[in-house]
Structures are given as C-alpha cells and as structure tokens.
C-alpha cells in the first residue's frame, strides 16, 4: 500500500496504543473500572494492528489476512473456556505468545546474519532463549493442569544440576554467537537447548506449585516480548513486554511469599523440592466429627461466619452450592465472608473468579491479610477443600516443612469446621494439627454433597 | 559502543518497568487472574512484528514463520480480551444485587 505520510501515521497509532495500554493497566486496579481497562486495551490493539497494516513494507497481504482470520478462529474458543479451566488456558496463551516471539526472533536472525551487531545479537539471543523455554514450559504446565500429563512431580537426583548446566550451555552458545555472529550454525543450539530446558523445568513441579510457575512463565513471556521490541526497535513492544514482565514478576514474588519460598528458589525454577512425609502419628489421634444436621444448627446459631475455600472446592464443583449456603445464611441475618489465601487454586486470584462466577459479591471476598484480623471474632470458620493454607503448624512448629508459610488463622475462630473426604493427608503429605483441636469439627464427605445437605437442613436453597 | 537508539530503548524499557511495578502493585488480589489474562493479551502486540515479517515476504522460510507467529499472537489477542471481559462481568458488588 502506498499512502503518503503512512509511516508517521503508524508511529502515531503506536503512541496512542502505548497510552491506552498503560491506562488499561491503571483501570485494572479496581473491579469498578476494570472493564473500561479491557476496552482501552482492545482499542489500543486495534489501532496498532490497523496502523501496522498501512506500512509500505508490506507487499503481500494475502497470508497476513489468512493468518489473522485463522488466529481469531482459534482465539474465540480459547476465550470461552470454563472458569475452572482458566489456569490451563492461561498457560496455553503464554505458550502461544512465546511461540510468536521465538519464531519472529529466529526469522530476524536469518535475515540479518552474519552481520549482526553485538548488542543486537545479545538481545536476540535473550529473546529466543526466553521465548523457547517459555513455549515448552508453558505447554508442559498446561498439560499438567489439564491432567493430560501426570500431576505428580517427577524428581531425580541431581535434577537441578542437570537443568542449570543445560541453561548454562545455552548461555555459553549465546555468548559465542555474540562474539562471532558469522557462526550461523550455532544458532539452532540456542533454540533447541531452551526447548528441552522448558520441558525439564516443569517436570518436577506439582499442581500446588502451579500459581508460582504460571506467574513466572508470564514474566518470561513478557521479557522475551520486550527483547523482541529491542530487536525490531519498537517502543510499543518494549513497553507492552515490560508491563507484562513486571506483572508476572510481582505475581511470582507474591506467590513465593505466600508459600514461604525464597525468591532465588523461584528464579531458578526449583520449586519441586522433595516433600517430607511426616504423617506417622496421624491415625492415632481422635477427631470430632459432625453430621450435616449438627453443622447446620451451629451455623444457624452463629453471628459471623468465614468460609475458607481451597482448590478442593473447585475440584468438587461445589461453588454453586456454596453460593446457596451463602444465601441461606445471609437470609438469616448472619454475616458471611470469604477468606482467600493467595495460593488457593491453580493460579493467582483463581478462587475469586470461581466465586464471582457463582455470583458471590466481590466485596465479600477478602484477602488473607484482611480476614486474619477477623477470625478471633468469628463464630464459625468453614473450610471447604483447603488444607495446608489452614495448617497452624506453619505458625508454631519449627520442624514442619511448611513452617513460616503465612496461613489463614481458622484455628482462632470459636469453632472451625472442615469439610474433607477422609483423614488422608493433603497433596503435600503434611499432617494438619487443626483437625485434632477440641474446637474443630470434621465434616466427612464430598464438598458439594455436604454443603448441599447443610443448605437443605437450613431450609432449602430458595425459600 | 551502544548506539544512541538502543540507549533510548533501554530508557523506555526501564521507565515502563517502573510504571508496571507501581500500577500492578496496587491491583487488588481479587483481580489477579483477569490481570494475567489482560497483560497476556496486551503482550500479544508482538503480532505487529509478525505482520511486518510475513508481509515483507523476504523469503519463504521467514514468511512461513511470520504467518505461524501471527496465528499464535492473534489467538492470544482475541481469546485474551474475550476471557478477561467475561471474568470481569462476573464481579458484582453486594449493593448491585437484589435479594
């Protein structure tokens, strides 16, 4: 296309798009303005794509058009997945983003080689290494979340050494390329090694570590896109990549703090540490259990109830029954709130989305730091499908593998009720002393069925 | 020596990272899932690089890579904005619901 002044128009659309992207993130800070943020992002995106299509450099529109249409056709079903499937969808979209960046980086190398300036070669290597490992790593994470791959972590001796040496080799090859960009046959190595590294990095990671991993992959995807911005000299891409990278970084730090992992632990992807199984004396101790009828009577007599949901609630698809319970209790004038641990679910904020989908007002969904101050005044804390995030051993048993992890203080409520299938220890295999307290009642059964029974005892889902 | 335009790019990156940190730190944990899907969609602006690559048609190899890259990034744009908006529509305050 040959429109006079088109290059200026393009730069201007990029400038507006950048402003809209930044506003988009700013408006995400509150649920009241968040949808405006999505609009702003969409407008920026459409402007930037429309501007790009005006470029003089484009000589062939046929394939661009076909690709845009095909991408949209794939994108729509990915935008319509169930809320329980959002973590694997997110992992998959990290993989797609990284794939785009890696392919463009590879093409740019072969277009420019052998005369690639050193700084350019360095960012190009960074782009391709980060992109490639994010691509396979995210595919692996999506596979584990979708349960097409085994969820259990697979570990072996010297795993970290193997992984880190692989990464070191890739970096060494990249350095060689920076010094001697004419050695073009080295390039496939900085593509292939990170692809393998991405797979090996996710192999030792279990389901409970997924919130951290997804955040980290998010950060890598953003940084690789920013590197691509350096290569193409696109400020818009640098900014979008930096924003995405910063977002993923902050979420990774949040998640690692919420699991009491050190930050270097996160950076090197060594989350799947060996789990110490300390479930020796578990069976011997007595627990108090109760029926749905008894639980309903205690809940009906309460003034203030805090519900603590975990991933088990999502697995049992109990969120809509929980909503009925919320309604039944609220109707009786009982104050009901939800205490959400940062790592509850399979990605940051996952539990909030599931509860919002079940129509629970978002101002009742409270973060750990806020709700913890309220447990001492709480009559009943009802734990549904959560385990380690309520374990008081994290607070007071220095020998416990989860010691130091911030938890929801449900043991400080007047009565704690725990809905659980059986006494078998949770994913991490750590015994939970909460279950043996005098003030704790164990409600054995399937979360969805049990909550449904409580609702029935309270007088039906709708009156 | 680092060229001037590369230095400018480094400044841009640094400033954008600072803005990102400041804005994202303030985002409530309530919205962390839609935040991730939104930044993912914004990140797919990489599609502009892919469009230029495929459109320039320098040779078959780079055009094929460009076309696949456009497909991957466009699916993120469309799917990312779509699911973010779907999620945000679900977040309602108590005052806005009738009992």
In whole angstroms, the N-to-C terminal distance of chain A is 66 Å
Unreliable runs of chain B:
none
Helix content of chain B: over 70%
Q: In total, how many beta strands of chain B?
A: 0
Number of helices, where a helix is a run of at least 4 consecutive DSSP H or I residues of chain B: 4
Give the overall shape of chain A. Answer: globular
Q: Beta fraction of the residues of chain A?
A: 5-15%
Uncertain parts of chain A: 269-282
The greatest interface between two protein chains, and residues involved on each side, is: A-B, 115 and 84 residues
- Overall structural class of chain A, as computed from helix and strand content, comes to alpha/beta
Describe this structure in a few short sentences.
In chain A, 56% of the residues lie in helices and 7% in strands. With 463 residues, chain A is of the alpha/beta class.
Verbal overview:
The complex is a heterodimer of chains A (463) and B (99). The model of chain A is unreliable at 269-282 (pLDDT under 50). Chain A is built from 17 helices and six strands. A six-stranded parallel sheet of chain A has the order 3-2-1-4-5-6. Chain A starts with 5 loop residues before the first helix and ends in a 6-residue tail after the last helix. Helices cover 56% and strands 7% of the residues of chain A. The longest helix of chain A has 28 residues, at 118-145. Chain A is globular, with a radius of gyration of 25 Å. Chain A folds into two domains: 6-267, no CATH class; 282-457, Rossmann fold. With 463 residues, chain A is α/β, with parallel strands linked by helices. The model of chain B has no long low-confidence stretch (mean pLDDT 89). Chain B is flat. The termini of chain B are far apart. Helices cover 76% and strands 0% of the residues of chain B. Chain B has 99 residues and is mostly helical. Chain B contains four helices and no strands. Chain B has one domain (4-92). Chains A and B meet through helix 1, helix 2, helix 3, helix 4 and helix 8 of A and helix 1, helix 2, helix 3 and helix 4 of B.
């Amino acid at each position: 296309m040959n429109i006079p002044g088109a290059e200026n128009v393009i730069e201007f659309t990029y400038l507006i798009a950048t402003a809209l992207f930044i506003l988009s993130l700013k408006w995400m800070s509150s649920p009241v303005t968040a949808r405006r943020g999505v609009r702003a992002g969409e407008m920026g995106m459409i402007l930037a794509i429309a501007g790009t299509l005006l470029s003089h450099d484009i000589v062939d529109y046929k394939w661009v058009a076909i690709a845009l249409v095909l991408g949209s056709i794939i994108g729509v079903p990915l935008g319509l997945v169930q809320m329980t499937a959002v973590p694997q969808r997110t992992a998959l979209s990290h993989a797609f983003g990284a794939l785009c960046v890696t392919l463009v980086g590879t093409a740019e190398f072969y277009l420019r080689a052998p005369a690639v300036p050193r700084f350019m070669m360095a960012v190009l290597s960074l782009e391709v290494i980060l992109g490639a490992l994010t691509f396979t790593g995210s595919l692996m994470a999506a596979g584990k979340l979708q349960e097409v791959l085994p969820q259990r972590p697979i570990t072996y001796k010297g795993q970290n050494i193997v992984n880190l040496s692989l990464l070191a080799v890739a970096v060494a090859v990249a350095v060689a390329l920076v010094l001697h960009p004419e050695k073009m046959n080295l390039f496939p190595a900085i593509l292939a090694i990170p692809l393998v590294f991405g797979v090996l990095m996710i192999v030792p990671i279990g389901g409970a570590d997924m919130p951290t991993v997804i955040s980290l992959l998010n950060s890598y995807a953003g940084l690789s896109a920013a590197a691509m911005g350096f290569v193409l000299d696109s400020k818009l891409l640098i900014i979008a990549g930096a924003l995405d990278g910063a977002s993923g970084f902050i979420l990774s730090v949040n998640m690692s703090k919420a699991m009491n992992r050190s930050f270097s632990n996160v950076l090197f992807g060594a989350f799947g540490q060996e789990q110490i199984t300390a479930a020796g004396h578990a069976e011997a101790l007595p627990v108090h259990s109760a029926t749905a009828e008894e639980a309903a009577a205690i809940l009906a007599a309460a003034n203030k109830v805090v519900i603590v949901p975990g991933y088990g609630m999502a697995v049992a698809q109990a969120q809509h029954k929980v909503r009925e319970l919320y309604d039944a209790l609220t109707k009786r004038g009982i104050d009901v709130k939800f205490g959400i641990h940062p790592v509850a679910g399979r990605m940051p904020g996952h539990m909030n989305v599931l509860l919002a989908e079940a129509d629970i007002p978002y101002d009742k969904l409270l973060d750990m730091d806020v709700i913890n101050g309220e447990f001492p005044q709480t009559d009943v804390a009802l734990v549904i499908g959560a385990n380690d995030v309520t374990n008081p051993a994290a607070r007071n048993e220095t020998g416990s593998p989860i010691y130091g992890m911030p938890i929801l203080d449900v043991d400080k409520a007047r009565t704690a009720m725990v809905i659980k299938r059986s006494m078998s220890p949770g994913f991490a295999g750590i015994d939970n002393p909460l279950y043996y307290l005098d003030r704790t009642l164990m409600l054995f059964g399937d979360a969805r069925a049990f909550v449904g029974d409580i609702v029935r005892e309270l007088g039906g889902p709708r009156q | 020596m680092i060229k001037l335009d590369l230095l400018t790019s480094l400044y841009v990156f640094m400033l954008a990272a600072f803005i990102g940190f400041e804005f994202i730190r303030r985002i409530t944990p309530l919205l962390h899932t839609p935040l991730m899907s939104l930044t993912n969609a914004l990140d797919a602006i990489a599609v502009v690089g892919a469009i230029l690559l495929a459109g320039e048609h320098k040779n078959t190899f780079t055009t094929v890579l460009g076309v696949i890259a456009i497909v991957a990034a466009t699916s993120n744009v469309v799917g990312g904005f779509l699911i973010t908006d779907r999620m945000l529509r679900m977040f309602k305050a108590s005052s806005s619901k009738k009992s």
